[in-house]
Amino acid sequence: MRFRLPSSLLPAATANRTSSNDVDTPEPSFHERQVTEKEAGVNANSSQVIPEEEKMELQHGVASVEAMTEVWTKRDLIVAYGLIWVVQFMLAFSSGIVWTLTPYVTSSFQLHSLTATTSIISSLIGGLFKIPYAKILDIWGRPQAFLIMIASITLGLVMMGGCNDVKTYCAAQVFFNVGYTGIAFSMTIFVADTSKLRNRAFLIAFTASPYLVTT
What we know:
The chain has one domain: Up-down Bundle (Growth Hormone, Chain: A). The chain starts with 9 loop residues before the first helix and ends with a helix. Helix content is 79%, strand content 0%. The protein contains 10 helices and no strands. By secondary structure, the chain is an all-alpha fold. InterPro entries: MFS_dom, MFS_trans_sf. GO terms for molecular function: transmembrane transporter activity. One of its GO terms (cellular component) is plasma membrane. This is Major facilitator superfamily (MFS) profile domain-containing protein.
C-alpha cells in the first residue's frame, strides 16, 4: 500500500525542498571559484606533454645575442647606437664615392660600356649573399659575421686602388658590395635584437639617417 500526499500539500512540500537545498548548498565565493579555476588550469597544463622534437636548442649566434641583451644596460645601448650611426655614415660616404667614380674608372680603361655591367653584377651578388649571411649570423654569431664583412669591404677597396683592368675592378666591386650590404644588414639585425617593438621603427630610421647627409 502506497501513501500519497494530498494534491493540496504538494506545492508546499516542493517549496520546502527547494528552500532546504538553498540552505544546504551555498554558492562558492569569488575567491573559491578563482582557486578552483587555477587548480583546473594547473592540472590541464600538467597533463600536456611537450614532445622532445620541439625542444630545439638555440643556435650559437642567437643564444649569445639573447645573453647579451640580458646584461647590457641602457647606457651601453646608447653608445652602441651612436657607433652604429658612425658606421652607417662611413658606409654611405664610401658608397657614394665608389658609385660616382665608377664611370671614370671604366672610361680610363676605354670600356665605358661596362659601367652598368659592373654595377649590376656587384649589386646582384651582394643581394643574394644576404640569404646565407643571415644563417651565418645565427650560427657563428653577430661579431664574427660582422668581422667577415669588414674584411670583404676592405679587400674590395684595396683591389679598387690597385686594379689594372676592368675585370679586377669588377671583382673589387663585388667584394665591396658584399661587405657593404652585409654590414648594413648586420646593423639592422642588431637594432632588431636590442630594441623593443614600439621603438624599433624609429631606431632603424635613426641608423639610416646618415644617408640624408651624404646624398
